[in-house]
Amino acid sequence: MDTLKKPAHIAIYLHCLFNGGIERVMLNLTRNFVAHGVKVDLVLNFPGTSFLWDFPPEVRIINLEAEKILTRVPKLVRYLQQERPTALMSANHSANEIALLTKYFAGVPTRFVVSEHTNLSQEVANTSPLTFKHWSPLTSRLFYPWADRIVAVSQGVAEDLASITGLAAERIQVINNPIETD
User: What does R_g of the chain's alpha carbons equal in angstroms?
Assistant: First the structure.
């Protein structure tokens, strides 16, 4: 007897929507997922700009109302426990860290896929030790091993991330940013 498979349910987690490159990449991926029958939730700490309206109407927008950093993990945990998506994708370094910390507390079978778009070594080279960004290499070493999949947008970003985290290069898959061909 054939069993019906439940369609995939992907949560895309972003800090908020600005009209930037990461947001454009996530929009392109979302459109493709929807075109292939995947249920997609766009999970945001707060909405950001009107860029929201570019997402397909089938995409469910989840506003966690979590502008304050300390509220993000518990609100994302609650979302994951209630909705139980098949996978959660994040694509901004700070969102990746929040997502992976959430994995620790959520206790759900959701697969966590983080995408790194930044050469962290260069980004933190001239930052003050008083900023969160300065500590990104340390937090990456702590949290990135918890990811089910790690994607880097270039070989250089992958090599930098492997160097910073101590993870084997094979754990980091290079997938260049997709482009929209329509």
Answer: 16
Measure the CA–CA gap between 128 and 24, rounded to whole angstroms: 30
Length of the chain: 182
Residue 165: band (very low, low, confident or very high) from pLDDT cuts 50, 70, 90: very high
The closest alpha carbon to 159, from 133, 125, 132, 120, belongs to 120
Q: How far, in Å, are 95, 108, 127, 142, 143 from residue 136 at the CA level?
A: 12, 26, 11, 10, 10
Inter-residue long-range contacts of 168-175, CB under 8 Å, 24+ positions, other chains counted: 172/116, 173/149, 175/115, 175/151
Three-state SS for 85?
A: coil
DSSP-assigned letter for residue 127: -
Query: How confident is the model over 127-156, as pLDDT tens digits?
Result: 766 666 666 778 888 999 999 999 999 999
Among 3.50.50.60, 3.40.50.2000, 3.40.50.1240, 3.40.50.300, name the CATH number for the domain at 9-174: 3.40.50.2000
CA nearest to 113, candidates 132, 86, 135: 86
What global pTM score does this model have? Answer: 0.86
Sketch the domain layout of the chain as residue ranges. 9-174
